Amino acid sequence: MSPRTHHDDNPNMPTTVSPTDRPRRDPLKGFSYALAGTVLISTNYVMAKYGLKGFNPAAFSLVWTSGAAFYALLIVLASGRRRELALPATAVRKVVLLGLTTAPLMLCAWYGLRLLDPLFAGFLWRFSPVLAIVFGAALLRERLSLGEILALAVMVLGGSLSTMGRWHIVGLGIVLVLASCVLGAVQQLLARMTAAEVDPGVLVFYRCAIAVPLLALWVFATGKADFHVGASYWLVMLLGAFLGPCAGHMMTFRAYRHWELSRVSIVRTMQPLLILPMAYLAFGKLPALQEMLGGGLIFIGALWIARIQLLSKDTA
Q1: How many Å apart are CA 37 and CA 244, to the nearest integer?
Q2: I want to staple 275 with a disulfide (CB 3.0 to 4.6 A). Which of 122, 143, 158, 269 is the partner?
Q3: CB-based burial label for 223 (10 Å; 0-12, 13-18, 19+)
Q4: What gap in Å lies between CA 202 and CA 192, rounded to an integer?
Q5: Highest mean predicted confidence (pLDDT) among 20-24, 102-106, 139-143
Q6: What's the predicted TM-score (pTM) here?
Q7: Of 241, 131, 133, whose CA–CA distance to 183 is shortest?
């Protein structure tokens, strides 16, 4: 398989060109894609929490991941990128590792979420983008401006305030969610390293498709193959599989073509703010004043980041 690249907007461009011919970086597009991906992935916490009331976590992981792989494949084929399913040789190992880490990530995330409420789990998952920022600085030599570091601090403070006083909730749920955070940060690093070579839709497809047989092996080996649940759980699961692991990650991976891992990860820290209204609409849980104040800080930090990127676009 030979190295190739893609044109970000035209699927009919040739695919056998130099790997140095990459899409033009656009910080504003990077922010927009990162924000869209963050909004879509935030639906995971509520959709999955509802689905887990019917499915056991193992069966849910298998169906959720299979659905996302199927949606991603449809998008790749519909957009005329079938040939791009043949990965460039330089990306094969990283893409395979991305897929192999997806199976344990799904199991840890959904087993953990079943034991925790979505808002608290959403805060715990903020460790994933923070770890990704560390990876970006250490391994990709990315650097943040002082303004971006301060904005990140404000957003982390907001997330902490939203869930302050809940740390008495300890046990397996927290351990599993934190394990999924580490795996998620590794995945974002791998996606950032391959984003310029592999189409985002293709990357999402392999991320999920490689994990499916591993999840199936776990499900049937542990006797968790119970798919007899109500229609509402299936509908929510199928919708959620498209919104989060398919479309959400597609937007995030596309952001990496225009923006650094660390900056995309900063935007991802605003997820607790998005989960607050979703949890209320889904479960009738009204956020407390403390949670609203924390959400306000996250929103301020997100606006701060947006302003920095708009200014950088104007001065480019």
Answers
A1: 8
A2: 122
A3: exposed
A4: 14
A5: 102-106
A6: 0.77
A7: 131
Each residue's pLDDT tens digit, 275-301: 777 766 666 665 566 666 766 676 677
SS3 sequence of the chain: CCCCCCCCCCCCCCCCCCCCCCCCCCHHHHHHHHHHHHHHHHHHHHHHHHHCCCCCHHHHHHHHHHHHHHHHHHHHHHCCCHHHHCCCCCCHHHHHHHHHHHHHHHHHHHHHHHHCCHHHHHHHCCHHHHHHHHHHHHHCCCCCCHHHHHHHHHHHHHHHHHCCCCCCCCCHHHHHHHHHHHHHHHHHHHHHHHCCCCCHHHHHHHHHHCHHHHHHHHHHHCCCCCCCCCHHHHHHHHHHHHHHHHHHHHHHHHHCCCCCHHHHHHHHCCHHHHHHHHHHHHHCCCCCHHHHHHHHHHHHHHHHHHHHHHHHHHHC
